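If you are new to this repository, start here. Below is one unmodified record pulled from the training split, so you can see the exact layout before writing a loader.
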Amino acid sequence: MTRQEAVLEVEDLRTYFFTRGGVAKAVDGVSFTLHRGEILGLVGESGSGKSVTGMSVLGLVDPPGRIVGGAVRYHGEDLVTAAEKRLRQLRGSRIAMIFQDPMMTLNPVLSVETQMVETVLAHDRVSRSEARERSREALARVGIPSPDERLAAYPHQFSGGMRQRVAIAIALLHRPDVIIADEPTTALDVTIQAQILFEMQKLCRETGTALVWITHDLAVVSGLADRIAVMYAGRIVEIGSAVEVIDGARHPYTHGLLGSVPSRNRRGEPLAQIPGMTPSLLNLPEGCAFRPRCPRATDACFALPPLSDEAHGWRCFNPQGAVA
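And here is the target side for that same chain:
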């Protein structure tokens, strides 16, 4: 597809944190494209750079971190070089974010109605009654029963799952072009998690909203995402359609993540584990960052493998399915 058809295009994004201990390359050359109605699963262990990638898209990285290179294009407009005033216009209205902790979105001392109505009025010139009606519709859309009663309630009167639904409803108020969801169902029980995943998938189909779903859980995105990008140590190591990545994983790290999913193991067999730990971003190994943990590593891996530019690409000299 052409760049004009892309809602969001991230190109060679680099976000570094400048600390006393050195420079941590949290995001180091990340690129992906998102189209209308598409769901991209961004997967990796803690510390892989997933969340920083999402925050960078919205320009929410604070010192000591900063974007040092690359581009984030929203309908062709580069947000990396955009003024803060322009970013405030886009945040929440055209590009929304759902955080893992809903209390990062919700104010505990204000009613849900006050918070949702003020969110509408911050971007749209409408009456308070119309803003309230839009708020009520948004709550109903995420499956909250008795939305009129719930509007009058305060965050502490909701369960964790309900609070997360309110946070999602707030993200939906302006029917944004892009939603970045940072592990929003991690703390929820599996029943609520499944309902929210279904509702998000339905939303993208019905409204054309594009979604980046950030998670450490490949099992979650396997049934949700159209495409999956696997991150490790600040870089995308494999990207492709969900079917290609799940059923035909080529990078050893992706293969290791899949092997640790309980549903993919035979009953009674121990779960496969990836040996070692994620490296410190302040002291990355030479060449491929996964090399010290990789069972397929060779001397060639002391150089950084490129990410192949096919629809299903991987960053590996000795991929699964090839002779090591």
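Two things worth knowing about this chain: The domain at 3-94+178-314 is CATH 3.40.50.300 (Rossmann fold). Residues 123 and 178 are 16 Å apart (CA to CA).
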